[in-house]
Amino acid sequence: xxxxxxxxxxxxxxxxxxxxxxxxxxxxxxxxxxxxxxxxxxxxxxxxxxxxxxxxxxxxxxxxxxxxxxxxxxxxxxxxxxxxxxxxxxxxxxxxxxxxxxxxxxxxxxxxxxxxxxxxxxxxxxxxxxxxxxxxxxxxxxxxxxxxxxxxxxxxxxxxxxxxxxxxxxxxxxxxxxxxxxxxxxxxxxxxxxxxxxxxxxxxxxxxxxxxxxxxxxxxxxxxxxxxxxxxxxxxxxxxxxxxxxxxxxxxxxxxxxxxxxxxxxxxxxxxxxxxxxxxxxxxxxxxxxxxxxxxxxxxxxxxxxxxxxxxxxxxxxxxxxxxxxxxxxxxxxxxxxxxxxxxxxxxxxxxxxxxxxxxxxxxxxxxxxxxxxxxxxxxxxxxxxxxxxxxxxxxxxxxxxxxxxxxxxxxxxxxxxxxxxxxxxxxxxxxxxxxxxxxxxxxxxxxxxxxxxxxxxxxxxxxxxxxxxxxx
Length: 473
Description:
This protein has 17 helices and seven strands. It is mostly helical. The protein has two domains: 230 residues, no CATH class; 206 residues, Glutaredoxin, CATH 3.40.30. The protein is elongated, with a radius of gyration of 31 Å.
């Protein structure tokens, strides 16, 4: 009697194992739902603006253009699919294995960016890009934690409250009675039934996982096409005095071609204007330099009303009147009392319209600018200019090139570059003033010479310009 009683009551040493086997599926449930929520959060944050996420991928400077687009358009769709599978608890091991592979790739991307000295926001949950406030240690530890959760689900994929659990009910084999199990024939039949159920479960798992893997891949491929189409810039991509590739050209052809990429909510851009603005204007009017202004919008997230895009649109509206009007309006927007603080609310459209009168415009000129600002007349052109800059490796503002070579944002660097340009060759004939070549509607094709279309050299792409609002090293 004593022996039978102890057999019915498991020894204390076995209790932790029993508790672990009981708790493990519930722990897996928490891990599965957590990981699924992470993927859904990341996907939704990126799906809304496919062009912006492609620009984030480009910032890592680690993939070819076609691959950057494939990742930028396809990854959010894949993340959404993984999130759905994990939340439903179907093909959990497959979803966890793909998740682990992605987290490993993300870790490689973060580590290589840190090793190369790139200072980026990871873009894991939406917009990314260059920033001096990078937190690679936190990003790496976070992804390592996600990787551990995914590995747990790969090892122990059975969880509660899941489709997998529902399907597994068909695999249950009720244990025969004690009388039947005492015979060899009864034990053989029981073991044969167990083997058959296990074999059926393996086939079902292979079929289900294989089918869902194909579906997931097809959905990601379809997502690439859909997101690519959504990222297309529609509308008029030309203006009276501005093009996608050349920007707003101020001055006649000269020995030094100065390309300036700037964002109207960027404090460092204002500092640049205060540093070299007067000298640049003098050089342009003396035919020593020709300025190409490229107003781009990379800081919309730093305001609550997309001020970067709206201010760039307003400046291009001013360029419709004349290049000189653009320069005046451009300089006014960078005034210390006008430019809003970064990460603060931007100026309203009514204020942007009022600035036209502040620079001395009257009559029909004011009316035309007001209409253009209210209608976002050059919204598509701003988007195209921003995308063109991203393709050239420009992810921070201000960025300055002289004759296609990037320079530091200092007066000394600018003067040295212009002096070198004047020394190397005379200015073109100032009597010839080419007008900007309009870009055909719906395209962003560049036709200018290499000097007018600066492309960072491989070395300069490893030394990205600092993000607006932070001092450049």
